[in-house]
Amino acid sequence: MKNFIGTYECKIDDKGRLKIPSSLAKQMEDFGDESFVVKRSVFQKCLEVYPMKHWEKLMTKINGLNRFQKKNADFIRMFTAGVKTVELDNAGRIQVSKDLTVFANLTKDVVVTSAGELFEIWDKDAYEAVISTTEEDFAKLAEEVMGNIYTEE
C-alpha cells in the first residue's frame, strides 16, 4: 500500500484552485488515472484527500454498518457530507469546492501534508497551531499511541 510523504506550503486562489507541488503530484501519479476524494476531517478543521482505491476500501467498511440503527445512519450522513471527487487539471491543480474551503477556513496560505495513505489540506495558521507542541508532550503522545506496538522486522 502506497503512502504519501511530505509537507508543503501552497496557495489556494479565490476560486478554490489549489496548485499541487510537483513532488506530491508525482506521488499522485503512482495511483494511475484514479480520481481522488476530498472530504472534511472528523477531528480537525482540515480536509482529507484519499486516492479512490483507499476511499473505496474505507467505504466498504462504512457500507457494512446497519443503516437501520439511527446512530449509524447519522454517522454515515455526517461522514460523507460534502464529499467530492477531484482530479489534477492540466496545470497541476485540484478544485476544492466552496463548502469545503469554508469548512477548513482555506483562504490563501495553506499547508498540504502527508498522513499515510491520504494527505491533508490545512489553513497554514491552523496547521501551525495544531503541530506546535513541546517535545515532552509529543514524547508522551508517542509513548501512549505507539508504546505497546511490537514490530518484527
Structural overview:
This protein has 153 residues and is an alpha+beta fold. 37% of the residues lie in helices and 24% in strands. It contains 6 helices and 8 strands; from the N terminus they run E-E-H-E-E-H-H-E-E-H-E-E-H-H. The chain has helices spanning 22-29, 52-63, 70-80, 98-103, 124-131, 135-146, and strands at residues 7-11, 17-19, 36-40, 47-51, 84-86, 93-95, 109-115, 118-123. The protein has a 6-stranded antiparallel beta sheet with strand order 1-7-8-4-3-5. Strands 2-6 form a two-stranded antiparallel ribbon. Strand 7 and strand 8 (118-123) form a beta hairpin. The longest helix is centred in the middle third of the chain and has 12 residues, at 52-63. It starts with 6 loop residues before the first strand and ends in a 7-residue tail after the last helix.
The biggest sheet amounts to:
6 strands, antiparallel
Strand runs, count? 8
Oligomer: single chain
The helix-strand sequence is EEHEEHHEEHEEHH
What is the averaged pLDDT score?
A: 91
Please give the share of residues in helix.
25-40%
What would the principal axes of the Cα set say about the shape? globular
* Unreliable parts: none
Computed CA radius of gyration, to the nearest angstrom: 17 Å
Number of helices: 6
In what range is the share of β-strand residues? 15-25%
N-C termini distance: 17 Å
Determine the structural class based on helices, strands and strand pairing.
Answer: alpha+beta
Strand order, largest beta sheet: 1-7-8-4-3-5
